[in-house]
């Protein structure tokens, strides 16, 4: 049996992959997640893409697809020098989903060039989950009030 060296198992990439796998096990991929992934792939041809459904961290019914974090690494961000300009590009690619009548209520964006992503991984920095919800405005049904 082949066993990878310990330094590979402790690498930032391995840590990031373990986190991603834990997130994908906890939340099934639905149609909104698939649409976001398809649109970001078409718009940016990313070298790395994560679409995380973080709805389970909020006061929404189980199975919801309303709160997302995306991590997009693409050469196309090279000309977008500031975080806000990269965020605008991502928001524009997902304009139907993030519109007032769209399915996405919240979108957290991490968008960077491959070089910046590599620097981040080399430092052992991973993109963690967003903070847990502090309660919301009460306009959505509570988790235990609606079943899907």
From TrEMBL:
InterPro entries with a match to the protein in the record: BolA, BolA-like_sf, BolA/IbaG_stress_morph_reg
Listed GO CC annotations: iron-sulfur cluster assembly complex
Stored Pfam families: BolA
Region called Disordered, residue ranges: 124-148
Annotated family: Belongs to the BolA/IbaG family.
Protein's UniProt name: BolA-like protein
Classification lineage: Eukaryota, Sar, Stramenopiles, Ochrophyta, Bacillariophyta
């Amino acid at each position: 049996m082949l066993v990878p060296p310990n330094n590979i198992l402790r690498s930032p990439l391995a840590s990031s992959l373990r986190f991603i796998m834990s997130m994908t096990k906890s939340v099934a991929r639905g149609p909104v997640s698939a649409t976001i992934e398809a649109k970001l792939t078409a718009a940016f041809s990313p070298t790395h893409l994560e679409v995380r459904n973080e709805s389970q961290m909020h006061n929404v019914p189980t199975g919801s697809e309303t709160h997302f974090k995306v991590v997009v690494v693409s050469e196309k961000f090279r000309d977008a020098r500031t975080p806000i300009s990269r965020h605008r590009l991502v928001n524009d690619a997902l304009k139907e989903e993030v519109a007032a009548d769209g399915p996405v209520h919240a979108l957290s964006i991490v968008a960077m060039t491959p070089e910046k992503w590599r620097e981040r991984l080399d430092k052992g920095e991973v993109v963690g989950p967003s903070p847990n919800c502090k309660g919301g405005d009460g306009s959505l049904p509570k988790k235990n009030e609606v079943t899907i």
